[in-house]
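Q: Second attempt. The first request was missing the SMILES, so the protein and pyridoxal-5'-phosphate are both included now.
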Amino acid sequence: MKYEDNYRELESSYYMPAFSRDLMLVKGTGCNVTDAEGRTYLDLVAGIAVCSTGHCHPKVVQAIQEQAAELIHCSNLYYVPHQGTLAKRLVEYSGLKKAFFSNSGAEANEGAIKLARIRTGKTEFVACEDGFHGRTMASLACTHKPAIREPFLPLNPRCSFVPYGDAHAIRKAITKDTAGVIVEPVQGEAGVIIPPKDYLREVREICDEKDVLLILDEVQTGIGRTGKWFAYQHEKIQPDIVSLAKGIASGFPMGAIIARDDLEFLKSEHGSTFAGGPVACAAAIATLDVVEEVLPSVEEKSNQMKKAFSAYDTRVTGLMVGITIGDSCPAVQQACRERSVLVNCAAHGNLRLVPPLVISSEEIDRGCEVIDTAIKSVC
Ligand SMILES: *Cc1c(COP(=O)(O)O)cnc(C)c1O
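A: Got both inputs this time. The predicted holo structure:
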């Protein structure tokens, strides 16, 4: 479909002004995207860690096209084509027991929160400062950032926040009413904040000791982003529930939770009209096939990134990179864009790079060089 030329006017007249943006992207292949004016960019944002297989990967496009021509929707009143296959794949990769699908990351976390509440009979949660879990009411209740959370108080469930990376603080925050602890293995929106080694293992031990559920929000870190299928696999632990979304279906809207033995929704306890639909599942299966192929290369690409930014205050895990820039982060983002590279400013002046996992070593070199030049030109 031809896109509209007057997109700026249409947005300002008819669309709620919740975003600030000025580029319209109209086409993508691999790690490149083209805007409405015909300029091409190297995309190190990838829809914020979504397009891990690159833009419009042929295998993903084919899976979506073929399934769209067969059956687009049927409702969960019926068995859904590909749903069981996708669930089996996720269960096998995760080492957990059963999956349930959603349409987004926030909705995956809603599911995790509901599951924790209904199976424990408890109502409260512990989460981390600077953590991000989504914008729906329950996921927002566990999201820390005051600016996005406080306008919506009172929120449910009750959630207490502790400093990230401090397992002892979690122990102290758990009460007899705590159903679960919800944590990101690496904080993405905060600017790629990596906790101390053994943090997740300590949190796991504390949750076992206190008999509360450990919910890992891997919406951003999951499906190969950190070089393993799930970030918790670096620490050789398992959560009780893991939530997924961003990288799971190459940009086709989808989320999921996977939970351990004995943690499942029973009849009528949860559901969704669209979740786990046939096209989403087909897109996800094709995505997993591609990620399986590129996963062994992520560590090397990660090291290449690490080396390129070693002069800066940088955090790297897999293809998740955070560089502390400070107040001039937006200017660096703009300077990169002028040099045809898309990067993203996350919270606290942290430049965030979450490129497609299929990025080539030449593209990494080119991107890193532009970013280095941009930082030097601005800072
Ligand atoms: C993006 C993100 C979410 C929210 O996902 P949506 O699909 O935008 O609802 C939740 N948790 C984490 C860690 C995220 O990065």
